[in-house]
Amino acid sequence: MRRPRPIVIVANRLPVHRVGDKLVENPGGLVTALVPTLKARGGAWVGWSGNSRAAGRAFSFEGFRIQPVHISEAEVEGFYNQLSNRTLWPLYHDAIRTPEFDHSWWRPYVVVNHRYAKAAAAVAPRNGLVWVHDYHLQLVPSMLRMMRPDVAIGFFLHVPFPPEELFAWLPWREQILEGLLGADVVGFQTQASARNFSRAAREFTRAEGTDSELEFDRRKIRVGSYPISIDFDWFANAAATPEALREASLLRRRIGAGRKILLSVDRLDYTKGIDLRLLAFEAMLKSKRTKVTDCVFIQIASPSREPVHEYGQMRVRIEQLVGRINGEFSEPGRVAVHYFRRGFTREQLASYYRAADVMVVTPLRDGMNLVAKEFVATRSDYTGVLVLSEFAGAARELRQALIVNPRNIEGMAQAFEAALAMPKREARRRMSILRTIVRRHDVFEWADTFLEALAG
Ligand code: ADQ
Q1: Where do the domains of the chain lie?
Q2: What is the pLDDT of residue 257?
Q3: Alpha carbon distance 52, 50 (integer Å)
Q4: Catalytic residue among 158, 184, 231, 269, which?
Q5: 3-state secondary structure (DSSP) of residue 185
Q6: Does 448 participate in catalysis according to the annotation?
C-alpha cells in the first residue's frame, strides 16, 4: 500500500508552544485531529506562534515541520482583533453584534493572508495537499493557487457561513468569495452553510453550478458539509478513570450538596448565549419552579479576545447577572450560580461533565459546538440530559437532545425543568443514541473524510 500523501495545514495558530525547552501541544479540537494525521503522513503546519515580537524559526516536531508566520503587533490589531473579530466574526454569527466595516482593517488582512500563502507555497511538496482553516485565512486559497497551481487546496470554515442577505453587507464580499474559490474543496460544518456559500458565490462572482459543485475560472470546486467532532475515546476514557470519578463525586458533594447540577462550559463570547440562559435559570427561581436547595447552575467561562471591546462589555453584563441572581436567591451554603471565569484542563472538564445532571449548551449561533459532543462522550453511565440550541451546528446531528430556541427564555426554562425531571429510562434512551452518533463520527473520521475528498 502506498503511504498517504503528506499534508500542509495552514491555520491561524501553530499546534505547539514552548515551555522552557519543551514543546507542548496546544489544547483544541484541530490540534487533536490533525497532529496524529501529520505524524503519520509527514508534512507541515503553517501558523502564528502567538508572539508578535519574535519571528521564530521553522523546526521539526514529531516528524513534521512547524513553519511559523510572523505577524507584527500592528498587524495583529488589524488582521486579528479588527477585521477577523470585529467584522467577520459578528457578521458570520447572524450579526448578533453589529459588524464594523473599516477600510483601514482590510489591508492588514490581505497582507497577512498573503504571508500565510507564501509560507505554505514554500513548504508544500510537489502535487501535495494543503488544508487551510477558518475565517482568518479566506484569501489564502486563491493566493496559494497563483503561487502553486500544482497543489490540491482544501478550505474548512469552522464558523457558520451567513445567509446571502447578511453576507452582502461585506464591502469585500467578492474578494472573500474569490479567495475561497481558489480551493478545490470548500467545507462547512452544515449543509445550510454550504448552501449559503454556493448561493453567495453565484450571486456575487462569475461562479456557476449547483450547491455542491461550482465552476469558476474553468475549475470545478466541491462544496459540502463536513461536521467536525471530538476525540470520543479520549473524553470517554478521561471521564472513567478512578481519579475523574472521584473528582466528579467530590464536585457533586461540594457544589451540588444534594442538589441537581446544571452545567455550561463556554469561551466567554457573546455568541454563546450565556446571559440568556442565566435569565432562564433566574426565571425558574423567581416563579418557584425550582429552589436553590434543589438545584445549582455552574457556568465555566474561559476568558477570550479580551482586547475586543464587546467582550469586556459582555463580561460585565454576565457578572452583574450572576451577582443579581446570587444576591436574590442564594442561601447560606447554597449558592445559586457558581461562576468560574478561567480555563480548565481537559481532564478537569471531563470531571465536571461527568458531575452534571443537565448540560446546557445554548449558543445564539455556533458553527458546531464541541462542548455538547464532549459532554456526551463522557457519559458512559448513560445518565445526564443535554439541552441544546437549535442554532448550534451540533443540533443537526444531536437530535436526541432537548432542542431549544435560546431567545425564548420561557421555553428554555421549561426545557431545564423537563431535563431535571426526565425519567431515568428516557434519559438513558436518548443518551445511548447520542453516544452512538458521536462515537461513530469522531474527529478522526472528520479529518479522513475531508482529506479523502481533497485527494480524490
Ligand atoms: P469555539 O467557538 O471556540 O470554536 P467550541 O466548539 O465550543 O467553540 O470549542 C470550545 C473548546 O474549548 C472545547 O473543546 C471546550 O472544551 C474548550 N473550552 C471551552 N471553555 C473552556 C474552559 N473554561 N476551559 C477549558 N476549555 C474550555 C470554533 C467554532 C465552533 C466549532 C469549533 C471547532 O466557533 O462552533 O465547534 O471552532 O470547529
Answers
A1: 7-229+443-455, 232-440
A2: 86
A3: 6
A4: 158
A5: strand
A6: no
Residue 198: count other Cβ atoms within 10 Å of its Cβ: 24
Strands of 27-151 (E only): list them: 43-48, 59-61, 64-69, 129-133
pLDDT for 319-334, tens place per residue?
999 999 999 999 999 9
Assess whether 366 carries a catalytic annotation.
yes
Ligand 1 centre to CA of 29 (Å) is: 8
Q: For position 3, what pLDDT does the model report?
A: 66
CA 244 to centroid of ligand 1, rounded, Å:
21
Predicted local confidence at residue 83, as pLDDT: 97
* Cβ atoms within 10 Å, residue 404: 28
Superfamily of domain 232-440: Glycogen Phosphorylase B; (3.40.50.2000)
Q: What is the pTM of this model?
A: 0.97
CATH superfamily, with its number, for domain 7-229+443-455? Glycogen Phosphorylase B; (3.40.50.2000)
Q: Are 139 and 166 in contact (CB under 8 A)?
A: no
State which ligand 1 atom lies nearest to the alpha carbon of 366. 35
- The answer to whether the CB of 377 is under 6 A from ligand 1 is no
Percent of the chain with pLDDT over 70: 99
- Among 135, 304, 360, 370, the mutation site with the greatest number of ligand 1 atoms within 8 A of its Cβ is 370
If you count them, how many residues does the chain have?
A: 456
Atom of ligand 1 at shortest range from CA of 374: 16
Q: What pLDDT was estimated at residue 127?
A: 92
CA of 366 to the centre of ligand 1 (A): 10
Residues 159-181: pLDDT tens digits?
999 999 999 999 999 999 999 99
Neighbours of 65 (CB within 10 A): 17
3-state secondary structure of 86: helix
Question: For 4-48, what is each residue's pLDDT tens digit?
Answer: 788 999 999 999 988 888 888 887 778 888 988 898 889 999 999
**Average pLDDT for 448-452:** 96
User: From ligand 1's centre to the CA of 371, what distance in Å?
Assistant: 6
7-229+443-455 and 232-440 in the same fold:
yes
184 lines ligand 1 (CB under 6 A): no
